[in-house]
Specification:
This protein has one domain. 90% of the residues lie in helices and 0% in strands. The protein contains 3 helices and no strands. It starts with a helix and ends with a helix.
Length: 113
């Protein structure tokens, strides 16, 4: 039981030291808001794309003229494109944030060694 308490206090101490060292580096944080905004935009596009495709499908079920169906197909392709762009934006910004934190953690751990 004492080992658990000691390990927890050591981990808490290391975390506090890590946070202090991060604050001391004075990393410019102006981009964090923009990255979060682009991640949210990516999620919105990722959800809006299939929703547009679903709406296009339901709109095309009652049509018999091929010209109308072709115009609805353009809308469906636009929805697919939105979903692809949304996926790319979301993956780019969420992975960049994760990898930046991972790199920072690795650098910090190597400084201890």
């Amino acid at each position: 039981m004492a080992d658990d308490t000691t390990a927890a206090s050591t981990a808490a101490g290391r975390r506090e030291q890590f946070e202090e060292d991060i604050a001391a580096v004075r990393i410019r944080t102006g981009k964090a808001e923009a990255e979060q905004r682009w991640t949210i935009v990516g999620l919105v596009l990722l959800v809006a794309g299939p929703a547009i495709c679903l709406l296009a499908y339901f709109a095309s079920t009652g049509m018999s003229d091929s010209r109308d169906i072709y115009s609805i197909m353009i809308l469906a392709f636009f929805g697919i494109a939105l979903a692809i762009v949304g996926t790319a934006l979301f993956l780019r910004y969420s992975l960049a944030r994760f990898l930046r934190f991972w790199l920072l953690r690795l650098i910090y751990e190597q400084q201890d060694q």
